[in-house]
Amino acid sequence: MKPLMLQGHERAITQIKYNREGDLLFSAAKDAKPNVWWSLNGERLGTFNGHGGVVWCLDVDWQTINLITGGGDSSCRLWDLETGKNIATIKTNSSVRTCNFSYSAYQAAYTTDKAMRHPCEVFIIDTRTVDDSISSQSPILKWEITDSKVTSMVWGTLDETIITGHEAGDLIQWDLRTGKKIHSVKEHNHQINDMQLSRDGTMFITASKDQTAKLFDTSSLELLKEYKTERPVNSAALSPILDHVVLGGGQDAMEVTTTSTRQGKFDARFFHLVFEEEFGRVKGHFGPINSLAFHPDGKSYASGGEDGYVRVQSFDQSYFDYTFDYNRD
Amino acid sequence: MPVADDIQSSWADEVEIDQGALPPPSEVVENGLKIVTEYKYDNDNKKVKIVRTYKIEKRVVSKSIAKRKTWSKFGDSANDKPGPNPATTNVSEDVYMQFITSKEESQRTDDGELDGLKPQSSSVIYKCRTCQGEHWTLSCPFKNSEIVMAKANEAAKAAEVKTTTTNKYIAPNLREGAARNLPREPPGPRRDDTTAIRISNLSNFAVEADLDDLVRGFGPVQKLYLAKEKSTGQCKGFAYVHFKFRADAAKAIQTLNGYGYDHLILNVEWSKPPQNN
C-alpha cells in the first residue's frame, strides 16, 4: 500500500500515539506544535499551539476529550481536543520527559528531568475535572528519583501502579498509594527509550538503546521475551491482533550524516512475538525511527522519524496471509 | 487576461502577459471521485498543471468517531479546506514489506551491499587448482597423487569425446594436448581466476547490460568485463565474467557454450590465466 506521509513538523518526531478508537493520530516533535491527524486519510485536524520548545511526550485519554503534553519548556499542558485550546499549564522546574493519563483518566502522571540542580521527580495529578484549576493545584503524590532519571513510563493495571524505565536501564514498579517501590529489575544495560502496553495491558514491551527490545509481565516485571537487533531501538509496539512486534530505531542522530541510508538500517522491523525471530521489514524513513504505534485495529501502523515525517502504512494482504513457519528445525 | 490597450503590443509582450496569469483552479466531483486541478510555476518558472484525484469513500463508524468528524479544524490548520491539505499530507511511493525467511538470510541482506567490495574470503585469496584447498597448487599435498591423475585422465577422456563427436574445425590452441590442459604453475599473487569465464563471439553491439542479463541467472557475479574498442566504444566480441562461486561458473559454461545470442553462437570457456612472456 502507498503510505501516507504527514509533514506537519519541522523537526524530529519525538512521540506518536493513536487514540483508543484509532481515528485520530497524535504526533509530537522537537518543534513546539504537537499535531493531530485523521488516521484514515492523513488530513490534519489541527495543531496545539502554546509550547515554547521541544515537546517530548503526549498522551490522550480513553474518551478522546483531553490531551496531555510535556515539553522542554518546563511545562506540562492539558488541551481540549475539540477546540485545540490550552486548558491548563503546569509549570515545572525542569523539562517534562514523560506524561501519561491513567486508563480511567482520573489521574495523570508526569516525570521531570534531572537538570538545572533539580532532581528527577514523578508527579501524580488529579485530572477528574480538567480546567484552569489544575495549573495551580498541588499534585496528589510526588517523589524524587535519586538514581538515574526516568526516560519512559506506563501505567500499570487498574491504575494502581506505574512502571518507569530509566536511563541506566532499570525498570521500577511504584505503588501509587504510598509512592514506594514494589519491584525493580535491571534487564537492560542502557537507556530505555520507550515502553508500550499490550492491548489487554498484561504485558509491555520496552525499547532500549542497548539494541534490544524486551517483553515484560506488567504485574511482576518478569522478563518474557527478548528481541535482538544490531542498532539502538528507539521504539517498539505490539500488534493488537497478531503475535507480532514492530521495532524501530537506527543509529544515533549525530552519526547519521556519516553513513549511507542503507547502512543506517532505518527500516521498521517485524518480529514474531513468541519466537523472537524477525520475519519482515518495511523501509521508508531516511533517519532513525523515533516512535512507532500500531493502529488499534491492527491493520496499519504509523512511524515517526528523526527526519520529521510521520508515515502511516497500511498492511497489504500479504502481511495477513503470512504465517510464521515454526516447523523448521 | 488583462484588457487589451489601445496600443498594439508586440507578440513577444503578449507571451509575457500570457504567462503572468494562471488559469483558475477547478474542482470536479463525479462518480465517487473528486478531481482537483491546479496550476502553478515550478522552479524553472514553467507553468505546471497539477491534477489530484481523490476517491470519496463512505464508512460506517461508531457514534463517538462520527461526532469527532464534525469537529472543525484548529491551530495552524484552522484555515484549511475540508479534505487533506497537500502541504501537510502526501501519498508516498509504494513500499512493501520484505519478508525474511531465516536468520542467515537476514544477515545476508544486512551486508549484501558491501559483498561485492569485500575480498572473497577473509584473508586467503588463492585456491589450489588441484584440490580447491587454501594453498598454492605448487604446494598441494595431493600433488602427483591420485586426484591429479584422475583429473588428468578425465581431461584426456573429455578431449577424446570431443574429437570423436565433432568434425568441426578446432583451433590449434583448443586441440587435444594443447598447452591449456597441462597444469601450469601460478605466475604469482593475482586475482582468483578460478571462478572466471570467458565469453567470446559476442555481437559488436553487445553492452554490459546485455551481458548482465545473460549471466545473472546462474548465480552472484563478482565482476563483469566487456572488452570494448577504445575509440568507438563498440564491443570487441569477448567478455570476462567473474562469478562468486565456481559451481555457478561451471553451470554457466555448460548452458551458454553454443548458445545462440544475437544471431551468433557463443563460445564460453574457463578464463585462461595470462600467458607468461
Give the overall form of chain B.
elongated
| Separation, N- and C-terminal Cα atoms of chain B | 81 Å
Task: Provide mean pLDDT of chain A, rounded.
Answer: 89
| Number of β-strand runs of chain B | 11
Major beta sheet, strand line-up of chain B = 7-8-6-11
Number of spatially distinct domains of chain B: 3
Total tally of structural domains of chain A: 1
Estimate what percentage of residues of chain A fall within beta strands.
over 45%
Largest interface: A-B, 52 and 37 residues
Low-confidence stretches of chain B: 1-5, 104-122, 185-189
- The CATH architecture assignment of chain A turns out to be 7 Propeller
Oligomer: heterodimer
Q: How is the main sheet of chain B built?
A: 4 strands, antiparallel
Topology of chain A as a string of helices (H) and strands (E) = EEEEEEEEEEEEEEEEEEEEEEEHEEEEEH
Provide the CATH superfamily of the largest domain in chain B. Answer: RRM (RNA recognition motif) domain
Q: What is the CATH fold-level name of chain A?
A: Methylamine Dehydrogenase, Chain H
Percent in strands of chain B: 15-25%
Helix content of chain B: 10-25%
Describe it for me?
The complex is a heterodimer of chains A (329) and B (277). Chain A has one domain: Methylamine Dehydrogenase, Chain H (7 Propeller). Chain A has two helices and 28 strands. A four-stranded antiparallel beta sheet of chain A has the order 1-28-27-26, with no helix packed on it. In chain A, strands 2-3-4-5 form a four-stranded antiparallel beta sheet, with no helix packed on it. Chain A is globular. Chain B contains seven helices and eleven strands. In chain B, the strands form three sheets. A four-stranded antiparallel beta sheet of chain B has the order 7-8-6-11, with helices on one face. Chain B has a three-stranded antiparallel beta sheet with strand order 1-2-3, with no helix packed on it. Chain B is elongated, with a radius of gyration of 34 Å. Chains A and B meet through strand 1, strand 5 and strand 25 of A and helix 2, strand 4, strand 5 and helix 3 of B. Strand 25 of chain A pairs antiparallel with strand 5 of chain B, so a sheet runs across the interface. Chain A: This is Eukaryotic translation initiation factor 3 subunit I.
